[in-house]
Task: inverse folding
């Protein structure tokens, strides 16, 4: 044992000396190449003195990077990861200037902008050298990854006992089943192709009507996405606008799911949640949105990226990739405009930086955390890689931009699989997606007005001159005006004066009613009337705004509407005048024809949600082209029914029990994943957790009440 320890210590010392020597040579080379960087006084020094100075500078910079850099990053935990990534170069350059001042008595000097370059090169060279030396040393490689993800040493298995396999769930956000199969066939994802050829099986599954990450991931991780009608919706009873990717909304959705199921989530036993909207009940969290809105000693909302950025080499590499990604997006955007690609949306403003965060920072931090989790021997890990989804919204689900993202994601999967070979237990890697994406021109681009504009025009409310000039806006305003005139001047009917008085009262109520709240979730729109405390029926809407439902249902960009009815419970309205009670909906006939299998069941389920909108609006869908019209500024969208957005995938190791032939809904996916966790030596998650309502807060990530978003 002493001999092994001595050999390990000797190797460590040798690596330190080698990295120091290489860093010294790098400094000497940079001093020769960069005019604003010098390692000698103005009077000149001997070559030996210059080399000695370079060695001292390299050593001082290495020590500062090892000792001071982690303290700087920890002090900046309140800074968002994107901002920290942009500060990396400045901070690293400052450390180099400090090293020069402390170690050379003013003989060495560098201009501030040159110091940034020198520090970046030094960090990259030191990291590459250290990694190269550790390639053949499994223990050194393992220790490096432990430091990377800030994990403890792995728990060793008992002698003679085969370790139980752990499971890693990797979510490729927004990658549909067809996109994945096409990428594999085209050779863009060789790692996935190898898995499919040797160890894994692939199948699609069907989302709920709300085909977006908030609903899907809540159902997958917590077993219930009940009462999540869309990505964003208005709740009349609380007056609250819920948005799935707002921290306060996310923590409330998680609280409701835990209370509804009486279960902490998929990851409650020795689990880790990385880059997700929800925790899944895990005790190890990084970049999890539902913890960011809560205050307390366990709130480590920024600590998820501390371990990664505490290594200056990682920080510099990621920051460099982030800057490169920003310029890549700018170049791709310009190329799309020059080629006059259609459909196309604006890609300016902060979007290049948002894309860079999703495709670089989030990816690097999450991948590093997953590797650390495996080396620590955790039982279950669930991680979300959002890169493809972010790019596809603005570039479209298919094309050169997204092909490059898929290729980089595949390389990340390969790295995770390679690191699994060094883990203290075998790991089964499950790959899945939460939804797909459907292409298509935006609703506004196709018709010249937004869904909100169309609703306002159908209600007879003021709209802009631009909207009035569009055909849709003009027809909606005319219909609303004619309906109002008809209501006010309707002759006395069989009901006598009471009928006329009722029409006049309805017209007055419409003029005084609060404006409708119109929200968009991909190609799914929601219209709510906040002045009415209950879910309005079709008859009530017709009395208040006689032309609205007809205007929406007959618009060519809208596929169907869901609205409550006093006579039929709820009905689906189609553009051809169809009116089908929800109980009699079918996938292959009526308004839902062409929206795919399971559409009727998905609509029926959503109709029963307490917070379903007064009017649920699904855009048109062209089954031949697979296109939809997003009500948001997206040419690759998801959120409703129609096309590939409703067909994500599930890819699992063949030694696991195959899932049912037709998995429908995120809650069913949760059951499949939970069953896989239980396979092996005993249950991997608690079989039953049934806390009281008062105890459900214990399963939330941190203590203290949720903090409200500034917008509700």
Result:
């Amino acid at each position: 044992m002493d001999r092994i320890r001595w050999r390990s210590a000797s190797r460590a010392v040798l690596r330190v000396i080698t990295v120091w020597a290489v860093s010294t040579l790098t400094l000497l080379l940079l001093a020769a190449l960069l005019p604003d960087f010098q390692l000698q006084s103005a009077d000149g020094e001997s070559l030996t003195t210059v080399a000695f100075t370079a060695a001292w500078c390299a050593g001082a910079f290495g020590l500062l990077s090892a000792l001071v850099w982690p303290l700087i990053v920890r002090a900046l935990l309140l800074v968002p990861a994107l901002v920290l990534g942009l500060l990396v170069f400045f901070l690293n350059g400052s450390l180099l200037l400090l090293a020069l001042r402390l170690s050379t008595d003013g003989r060495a000097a560098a201009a501030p902008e040159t110091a940034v370059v020198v520090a970046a090169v030094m960090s990259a060279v030191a990291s590459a050298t250290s990694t190269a030396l550790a390639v053949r040393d499994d223990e050194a490689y393992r220790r490096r990854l432990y430091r990377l993800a800030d994990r403890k040493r792995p728990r060793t298995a008992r002698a003679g006992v085969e370790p139980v396999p752990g499971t890693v769930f990797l979510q490729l956000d927004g990658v549909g089943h067809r996109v994945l199969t096409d990428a594999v066939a085209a050779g863009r994802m060789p790692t996935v192709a190898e898995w499919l050829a040797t160890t894994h099986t692939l199948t699609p599954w069907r989302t709920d009507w709300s085909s977006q990450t908030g609903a899907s991931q809540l159902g997958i991780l917590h077993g219930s996405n009940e009462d999540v009608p869309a990505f964003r919706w208005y709740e009349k009873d609380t007056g609250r606008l819920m948005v799935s990717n707002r921290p306060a909304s996310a923590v409330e959705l998680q609280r409701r799911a835990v209370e509804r199921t009486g279960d902490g989530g998929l990851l409650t036993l020795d689990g880790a949640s990385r880059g997700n909207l929800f925790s899944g009940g895990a005790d190890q969290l990084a970049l999890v949105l539902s913890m960011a809105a809560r205050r307390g000693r366990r709130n480590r909302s920024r600590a998820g990226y501390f371990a990664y950025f505490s290594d200056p080499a990682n920080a510099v590499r990621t920051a460099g990739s982030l800057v490169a990604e920003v310029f890549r997006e700018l170049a791709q955007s310009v190329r799309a405009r020059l080629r006059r690609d259609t459909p196309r949306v604006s890609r300016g403003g902060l979007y290049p930086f948002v894309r860079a965060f999703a495709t670089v920072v989030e990816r690097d931090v999450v991948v590093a955390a997953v590797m650390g989790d495996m080396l620590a021997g955790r039982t279950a890990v669930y991680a979300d890689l959002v890169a493809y989804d972010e790019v596809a919204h603005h570039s479209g689900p298919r094309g050169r931009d997204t092909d490059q993202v898929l290729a980089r994601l595949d390389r990340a999967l390969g790295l995770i699989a390679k690191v699994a070979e060094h883990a203290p237990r075998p790991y089964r890697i499950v790959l899945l997606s939460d939804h797909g994406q459907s292409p298509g021109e935006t609703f506004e681009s196709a018709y010249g007005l937004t869904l909100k504009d169309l609703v306002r025009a159908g209600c007879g409310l003021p709209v802009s001159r631009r909207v009035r000039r569009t055909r849709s806006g003009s027809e909606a305003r005319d219909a609303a005006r004619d309906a109002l005139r008809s209501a006010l001047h309707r002759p006395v009917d069989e009901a006598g004066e009471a009928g006329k008085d009722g029409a006049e009262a309805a017209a007055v109520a419409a003029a005084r009613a609060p404006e409708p709240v119109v929200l968009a979730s991909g190609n799914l729109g929601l219209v709510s009337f906040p002045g009415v405390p209950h879910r309005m029926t079709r008859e009530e809407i017709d009395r208040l705004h006689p032309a609205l439902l007809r205007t929406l249902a007959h618009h060519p960009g809208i596929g169907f509407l869901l609205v409550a009815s006093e006579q039929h419970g709820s009905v689906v309205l189609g553009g051809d005048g169809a009116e089908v009670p929800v109980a009699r909906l079918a996938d292959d006939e009526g308004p839902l024809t062409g929206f795919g299998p399971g559409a009727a069941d998905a609509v029926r389920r959503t109709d029963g949600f307490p917070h379903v909108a007064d009017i649920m609006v699904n855009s048109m869908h062209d089954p031949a082209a697979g296109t939809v019209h997003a009500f948001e500024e997206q040419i690759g969208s998801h959120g409703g029914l129609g096309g590939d957005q409703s067909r994500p995938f599930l890819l699992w190791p063949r030694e696991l029990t195959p899932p049912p032939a037709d998995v429908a809904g995120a809650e069913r996916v949760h059951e499949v994943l939970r069953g896989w966790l239980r396979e092996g030596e005993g249950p991997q998650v608690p079989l039953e957790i049934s806390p009281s309502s008062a105890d459900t807060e214990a399963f939330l990530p941190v203590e203290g009440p949720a903090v409200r978003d500034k917008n509700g």
Observations:
- The first strand starts at residue 37 and ends at 38.
- The two ends are 61 Å apart (CA to CA).
